[in-house]
Amino acid sequence: MASEFSISFNRNIQSRICGSENLRDVAALLEGEREIYVVYDENASHFAAEVVGLLDSVKGCFAIDTSEELKTVETAVLICRRLMEAGASRKALVLAVGGGITTDLTGFAASIYKRGVRYANIPTTLLAQVDAAVGGKTGVNLDDYKNMLGVIVQPQFTFLCPEVLRTLPVRELRAGIAEMLKTFLIADSAAYSEAVTTLPDTKTPVSVPERSKNDCPDTKHPVSVPAGLILKAAAIKAAIVERDPYEAGERAKLNLGHTFAHAIEHEARMRGDDIVHGEAVAIGIIMAAEMAEREGLAENGLAARLRADFKRLGLPTECPYETLEFVKDKKAADGKVTFILPVRPGEVIMKAYDLHHNTE
C-alpha cells in the first residue's frame, strides 16, 4: 500500500516541508552535512538519541528545558554559548528536535549565532508539525508577552513524522488539533469538515484554567491523527508562507484566533493559571467567530457550529476572563489591533479595530 508520507523536498520552496512515516529517513536529508549540532527538548530525548544514532557528523548534542517562562533571550544565548564552546563554525547546521518552543528557540539562536547559521526542524508535537515549526518564524518572549523578539528565517527543512506523536499526551494532541482546525478554517472548508468528523473524540473536554496539565489522567492519545491531515495542514501554511514570507499581507490570516489567544495567555501568566497555547487558540477562534457574527460579517450560526465541533474534540471554547489586554500584542500598530475574522469555513477576513473596538 502506498504511504501517505514520503520524502519530498524542493530546495526552491521557502517553507521546505518533507516527511516520512519513519524517523530514520531524516538521515537522507542530512547526507553530506559535516557539522551537525542537535538541540533537543528533554521530553524528546529518546527521539533525539535515535536521530543522533543515525548520523556520523553530530559534533554536539544539547538538551534544553522548555516552557513559556524559559522561552527567553537568556535561553537562546545559552544555546549560542553551547555552540561556541563546542566549536561550531559558520558552516554548522543546528537541528532542533522537540515542540514549538524548541524549534522557535533553536531557530532564533541559529539566526544570531555568528550572524546566522543554518537550522532544521524535527517537530515532535502535532502543534509544531502543523504550525509552529513551519514557515520560518522564530522568537522568544519578553516580559510575559509572546514572541516579542524574533526573526523570520527559513529552516533548511522541517521533517514531519507521525511516528514521533505516538506518546504525545492527549492535552498536547488537542493543542495541535486546534492549530490544524485553524488552518483549515482559513483556506480549506472540505479539510475542516473531514477533520471534525475523523479526528479522535477524546471525550474528556479540558476546562481551563482549573485543570493542570500534570493532572491529565490520559497520557496517550487513543487514536492517531491521520497523516494526510497533518500534511494537508502543513502544506496550506507552507503555501501561504511561500506567497507572503514576511507577513506583508496574506500570511496575517494565519493569526486567526491568535490575537485573542495571546491576550488570554498573557492574562493566564499574570494570574498563574494553566492554559496552553492551543487551548487559547481554540477559545480565540470562537471569540473571533462571535465578533464576526456581531459585525454581520459571518454566516449565521458560525460560532455555534464551531463551538459544537470544538467541544466534540475536547477543546475549550469559553474565555475564563472578563477583560483582555490587546495593546501590547506585537501585531498592534498605532493603537489599533487587527483581528482575523472567520466568515465561513475556508474564508476569513482582516479587520482593524481601535482600542474601543471601532472598525477601521
Shape: globular
**Main pleated-sheet profile:** 4 strands, parallel
Structural class: alpha/beta
Considering DSSP H and I runs of 4 or more, what fraction of the residues is helical? 25-40%
Number of strands: 10
- Rg estimate, integer Å: 20 Å
Describe the protein in words.
The protein is of the alpha/beta class and 360 residues long. It has two domains: 17-164, Rossmann fold; 170-354, Dehydroquinate synthase-like, alpha domain. Helices cover 38% and strands 17% of the residues. The chain has helices spanning 26-29, 45-54, 73-85, 100-112, 126-132, 170-187, 189-198, 227-243, 258-271, 277-294, 302-312, and strands spanning 17-19, 36-41, 58-64, 93-98, 118-123, 137-142, 145-152, 158-160, 336-344, 347-354. The protein has a four-stranded parallel β-sheet, with helices on both faces. A two-stranded parallel ribbon has the order 1-8. It has a two-stranded antiparallel sheet with strand order 6-7. Helix 6 (170-187) crosses helix 8 (227-243), helix 9 packs across helix 10 (277-294) and helix 10 (277-294) packs antiparallel against helix 11. It is globular and about 60 Å long.
